[in-house]
Known about the structure:
The complex is a heterodimer.
Chain A lengths: L1 H28 L7 H10 L46 E6 L27 E3 L5 E3 L19 E5 L14 H12 L14 E8 L2 E6 L29 H4 L7 E7 L3 E6 L13 E6 L3 H9 L5 E3 L6 H9 L4 E6 L5 E6 L2 E2 L2 E5 L6 H10 L2 H8 L27 H10 L3 E2 L5 E3 L2 E2 L1 E5 L5 H16 L3 E4 L4 H5 L7 H4 L4 E6 L6 H4 L24 H10 L5 H18 L2 E6 L2 E6 L2 E2 L19 E2 L2
Parallel strand pairs in A: 1-9, 1-10, 18-19, 18-20
Antiparallel strand pairs in A: 2-3, 4-6, 5-6, 7-8, 8-9, 11-22, 12-20, 12-21, 13-14, 15-16, 16-17, 23-24
Helix pairs in contact in A: 7-9, 14-15
Chain B lengths: L1 H28 L5 H5 L9 H11 L5 H13 L13 H36 L4 H15 L2 H15 L18 H38 L2 H8 L4 H38 L5 H11 L2 H29 L7
Helix pairs in contact in B: 1-12, 5-6, 5-8, 5-10, 5-12, 6-8, 7-8, 7-10, 8-10, 9-10, 10-11, 10-12, 11-12
Amino acid sequence: MDDRALDHTRRLAQLAMAGRLSRREVLRRGAALGLSAPALITLLAACGGGESAGSTSATGGGGSTPASGSETPASGTSTTETGSSDGPKKGGRAVIALIQEPGQMNEFFNSQSGSFLSVLVVEPLFIADANGEYQPVLAAEVPTIENGGISPDSLTITYKLKEGITWSDGEPFTAEDIVFTFEVYKNPESTPLVPAAYDKIESVRAIDPLTVEVKMKEINPGYLDLWQTVLPKHKFDSTAVTQEHPLARLPLGTGPFVFKEWKTGDQIILERNPNYRDPEKPYLDGITIKVSPEKEATIAAFIAGEYDYVYFIVTGDLPTLTQAEQEGKPVHVELFEGGASVEWLWLNLSDNGDPTKPHPVLGDPAIREAMDYGIDRQAIIDEILGGFGSLTGAFIYAGWAALDMPVTPYDPDKANEILDAAGWQRGSDGIREKDGVRASLRFQTIAGDQTRELYQQLIQQNMKDIGIELKIENVPSNTIFGSYQEGGLLARGNYDIVMSRDGYEVDPADWAAVFTSDSIPSEENPGGFTYCHWRNAEFDAAIKEASSTLDQEVRKQAYARAAEIFARERPALPLYQSASADAWSTRLKGVRVGYFNPRGTLYGAADWYLED
Amino acid sequence: MSHYVIRRALQAIPLLIGISVIVFVLLQMTPGGPLAIAENPGGSGRVTQEQLERLRAKYGLDDPLYMRYLHWAGDLVRGDWGTSFNTGQPVLAMIGERIPATLLLTGLAFLVTLILAFPIGIISAARQYSLFDYIATTAAFLGIAVPSFWLALMFLYVFTFSLGWLPAVGLGDPRQQYEGFAAVVDRARHLIMPVSVLALVSTASLTRYVRAAMLDVLGQDYMRTARGKGLTERAALMRHALKNAAIPVVTILALEIPDLFIGSVIVESIFAISGMGRLFVESADLRDYPVLMGILLIASFLVILFNLIADILYSRLDPRIRYR
């Protein structure tokens, strides 16, 4: 998800460039003009500004530390940024830059990152706070065993809704809307794109207008992630709803703003919701989401004061932004603790997707262990990321189940010893061999991300030092992530090492399934996502146990066991955890932080106001 | 003449069919597919296999290739250009929404090209090997050699980031709701850089053609006659030389128009202008086949159309050329 947005701009430029050169040359110019493609890319990157290699200002950032808001997010009592003493000013329009425009602004029908902006309009039942604890928004309380919300067998969840909530058209928000939402999910004519947690629902029943009873087919750890988007029953005449439906594109919600107009490729206009439950709010008259696909230009325009918020910034933008803040530019950067995704090296453990044969090189645990010791992770953070980012040792690294496990230290001597002991002998060119197999691997990531290409080269050098050759072959994102039928490299197991950012939000259940053998992609299971093509019965059993109960203690212990196996077997190597941060313009006030999701800043838009 | 036009128009039909088949097959053969986005690996909420299958069935991705083509072509014949995989909107409406910005951009760039290229080319030819000619020639070769995306980024760097004179992106200020004259000024400020980039690149090559055509004509006997009968150099140039020199240039001009559309792909992407060119790049990125097919078909049609227009203009300008 992070990957796509970050790499989008450069991939655009490259595609455009490829189209241009061939066309011009063929049609009119005749003679080739003699500029090589790599030279052009360098030129492009050189004048893009922004995340340059030389920028190493390792500052702590200018933001205040966000208090972990355990208060109800919707109540507006958690941390606020300093405001003026006269109280919030009413009126005005904030401008949000959106780098990657999604097809729909509705998370029920769209899984692209941009559709998260719909939280300005659509409220969920629960939001996770900075500690990963869920707080009710449209729900009256978080269901627990104590309050009767969770049945003793954990298979029935009863959600209680807040009183007096209305849709932005004035109709009441009731349990029937939730029942309808599930009916849409169930209807085979509908095409929802929602988390797998919905698949574990057996039935949904409205007990009274404010109480919903949901029966699960099996234990469903994602029960608080359900109902992030509820569909207004009164607006639909059928439960068959697809992406073409106007409300699948611009949904109706209960939140502070309403969608008014979407000019694709240009902007989305939001107006104040006149029926919002707090008549004082929102303070803003509206919000304009401006589509701005060139990342570098967007950040530059943001620093110049053209935008109030950018959806969304990543670790690579932080050196530029914090420097701008120190220079007195009208931007404010807020650094958060934890959260965020991890940059991984996915190792292919199968021989070209054939599960019966191990990978000729990576199938040897010694190679994987040596690689782990051979990567200078701290250098990536210090020298390339400007100090933004942290090391992580456990594959369960965030949320309530987070484990504190040691980070593999950088120790090339030890890596060499491991390889020597395992019988990988150095050849004349310094690259190791064993039984006629050369320790030479393809190393791929999404093409065009300058920052990443820098540490890709650093890793390449690290590996060369221990006698492993990495050949960098970067390709477009679609080629890597394509589905099994589409011949995606990961799905087909047609790769050696792929570097990509990945991770999870609060509950690790879905994330852990990314490594279990039952989701290895194959002809029979083309939707599988165990891209390491890893089979470990012990690990599978631990994950299964973790998913079989809602008892957090039992689950945490099971995940700890799984993490031990993961750290030993190394199907994937974590590089670093992205620094989690958000940024907004200094004229935007009343910004609330304290959410688990670094982009959760958007949940508090009702309190935003503009200073003159 | 009308026979000729009709025959050429009819010939365009099998040509377009051929193009559409080739493009359709090539698009589907490129690695990756429209579901990579929906599948969203790396997101927290992984969708189930069943949800993906529903989408595949809806898009008809499980059908064999020829069936998919026939479906698409059948719908097209009935006037249905299909529905975007990404937005769920009708393809024709999406393209229609994006065309005005591209027309504005390319139209202005074409005008600027004409206004610049003809005088420069004519003066260069009339004063061959003068200082002006050397400067114009050098500038033209630079213009041909420099890729437009590089030029665009340089413009951004200089006029927006360094000098702060011009807005970086879009066709209007998102913060302000200008009206009347202020709106025109705002729009113009946003258009200066993208139009200049597009126009400079095409001016560079057109100047060379105008110059070459003029030089060719200036050496002709009838030019000596014109001068001999006492016409001023200016009158000889404008009345006799230019008209004859225009014949080859017109062909190039007509072919320049589809080329400007192609150039707008880059310029629209860099300056965040929501035109057809950017729609094409976005759709290519998402493997949004219906939209890609729609745009490519329109682009092919434009190339064929302007080729035909060039041929017709040719015979109008030069009575020696007659089509049967």
